[in-house]
Each structure stands twice: as C-alpha cells, then as structure tokens.
Amino acid sequence: MTLPTTSNGWSIQSINKDSFDGLVRQDNVPIQKLGDHDILVQVEAVSLNYRDLAIPRGLYPFAMNLPVVPGSDAAGIVLAVGPKVTRLSKGDRVCTLFNELHQVNPISPDAVGSGLGGALDGTLRTYAVFPEHGLVLAPSSLDAIEASTLSCAPLTAWNALYGLQSKAVKAGDWVLTQGTGGVSLAAIQFAAAAGATVVATTSSNDKSEALKKLGASFVINYKETPNWGEAARALTPGGLGFDHILEIGGAGSIGQSLKAVKLEGVITIIGFLAPSEKQPPLMDALNHLCIVRGVFVGSRQQFEEMNRAIDSAKIHPVVDPNMFSLDDLKEAYMYQWERKHLGKVVVKVTV
Asked: Which residues belong to any copy of the Enoyl reductase (ER) domain (predicted)?
C-alpha cells in the first residue's frame, strides 16, 4: 500500500463570536514526515465536544494556538509506525489522547498545554501523524463511530468517578449527573455498571426515558424544579446526599450541587455551560464539608483502564443518530450548538 502524502480537513483560522466562519476547509495539506516514535493514522471518525464549538467563538479558557486543526476526539487505523514504536502496530484501531502529554496523574502544566484541536493540531482531517504516547488502543468491542467518542467526554466522566482512588465510585454509592451531554451520559453508564444509584437532571421530560435506559434510577427536570439540589438530596437514603456529583453547568448550577452533596462527598467541576455572575464563594466547600475538584479530561493510563472496563462491561457510548460528513462540518457544529443532539455528534471522515 502506498502511504498518503497529503491530508484533507479543516483549520480554525480566526475567532468569530457570532458564527463558525473562522473554520476554513484546507485540502492537499502535506503530511509531516514520520519520526522514530510517530504513528501515521487514517482518521475514520471524529466526535464533537462543546469545547470544539467554544474555540472558534473565543469562549475557550485554556491554551490554544491559531491557526489550528480542530477536534480532539477520533478513532482511526494505524497505517504506519516509526522504527522505535513499541505499543502499537499497523492495522490497530486507535483513539487519540485529548492532552498528548497527560500520561499519568497528577496532570502537569505541560500536559495542560498539550490539548489537541487547541494548542496542537487536532483530528478533523483525513490523515494525521501523532506521537505514540498520544494514542491508545481502542476497545475491541466498539466500532470506529463509537470509539471516536471516548477521548474527552467518557474519559472525563471516568476521571470524575475514579480519579480520587480513596473516593472511587463503588456499589451502594449515590451519583448525581447533570443534563444529557456526553460526560453525563457516560457517567450514568459507568456509575450504574459499578452498582451505584444514579439521579440525573434534564431540562426535557422527553429525554427522561433515555436517561433511565442508560441506568438512571431517578430523573429530575431542573426547569420544573429550580431547587433541584434539595429535591435530589431528598431521594438519597436518610437525605444524606450524594457521594459523587458531576458539575457540568459551572457557575450557574454549583450552588444546587452544594445543596445536594454528602458530607465528605465529591463535586467534580467539569463544565462551564451556565455562566453566572452569582456563584457561591469557595469557602462554601467548608460549610458543606465536601471536596470540590476540577478535572481536565484524564490521563493515558486512565484511558487504558476505562477501555478495559468498557470491553468488560460491554458499555456502548451514546451516539446521536444524525451523522455528518467532513464536508458538512459547519452544519455539525451548528447542530450541536443549537442543542439538537442526544449523545455524541459524530463526523464521519473516512469510515
């Protein structure tokens, strides 16, 4: 097989707070030479995150360098490996690591600045060269579409539930998730597989059954129940609260999470979907005697642990039924921006 020498894809050339016009199609881009520890990947599919939408609109608070190839999550096939590659082989299906330098915990400053699709060129292209340490073997039980969803949202959920070893989720725990984004859906699946009881919140009663099918025991509509923190807490044994809360909304919802958390429970701050000028002071963590923890996806080690669990428990990521082609990338961005999706939005690249 003759290896490709050029790649087709997209680039974020500029920031536009009102549109995705900063996304520019770029074809026949030369592929970099394969180094000793590098791997050439044919990208099969890419899934989108809110972060991908935030970057071209200037809403992303972490490191980025423009121009940059967008996208962090992908699954693909290894076409060639450098002479010193040892973990992966030609023909393997692989997933990209969100932060290339985040190999083990704790995360380092260098790792924080190594995010694909922001600081480094990402995945929305037909072929790409990645360092061996920036890839993991995909779960054998998943196809390319499903595997493309793992790099950010499920790995973040895994880190939230298992990242603090002394507080790792276990049977009998109570877990609270927020909304129907990729992190929350994966967290429901992981927590339920561990034997925990899950309470999920949503703004749509139409999505309640889908959340229960994934493993949620109770669903609260936070629009109908604005004080959902206390309502959720009341569901827990003795009204003692939750062992784990995945805080997706951010400043606009953490006050409710504090109302719901158990003494010595863990609130993992993940998202910034609900900005607000009014938010609880940091010292409220003392008042509630809880751990408030920020996470930034997860490490390669955690990714490999998660993939083994996915294969073992036969977990399949939730993928939105509407698929997009690489040519339709802006339409895919708008589809997710308008929150029309349930599950991960996937762009088929070469699959």
From this structure: 18-347
